[in-house]
Amino acid sequence: MKKILLPLLASLLLIPACGGGDSDDGLKALADAIESEIENDEEADFLSGKGACIADKAIAYGAEELKKNGITLETIGDDIETLPEGGQEIVINSTLDCITASDVAEGIMQGAAEEGEPISMEAALCYAENMSREEWRVIISGPEEDSEEAGAIFLGLIADCPQLLVEIFMDDMGIDRSTAECVVEALSGPLLSSLASVGEGEEPDMEDLEELFMAFIGCGVDPEMMG
Length: 227
Known about the structure:
The protein is mainly α. The protein folds into two domains: 1-144, no CATH class; 163-226, no CATH class. It is 56% helix and 0% strand. It has helices at 24-39, 51-59, 63-68, 85-96, 101-114, 121-129, 133-141, 147-156, 163-173, 177-186, 189-196, 206-218. The protein is elongated, with a radius of gyration of 21 Å. It starts with 23 loop residues before the first helix and ends in a 9-residue tail after the last helix.
């Protein structure tokens, strides 16, 4: 389950950079190049329509600042991690200034689908809407070694966004939505977090299983359906 909750929107890290040129014409050429690169990036479909905004936000830093931070016309298309820290901040902040919760949700859905464990827009949007800008930053820009921090963000929201567990119970047990929602509502906050943090192939501890079993029984689920 933790694997489902950790889509880090890796494609967002491939957003191109920009820079160079002192004239308005030079900056416009860079902005056009950035917009074109983003709009044609098939790995970042959820950024479709955001290219012009991201380009404008980046260009607003000015040619000198962009060049100083390694953002030049020649670096368009390079991985963000090849830029110095200042350049990475420009790219990330320009992106954050232009995306909405719906965009982040689409990115979460895209990442989950690539893992072979799709989630609904309802669940993804709940996560995105309950995250702060700084949490968006962690999700879209954190390298693999920071995945634990990203995972903690998702786990911290499981009580506010139980839709994913509802969908899992429906798929795994073949119960209807109202019954699945009944079960999730009956579970305590600590148990929700515990269930969400169980790794792939692992089993919850006995106390958690007992509370889960009682919740299913209380919502009218046949014990035989639980194996």
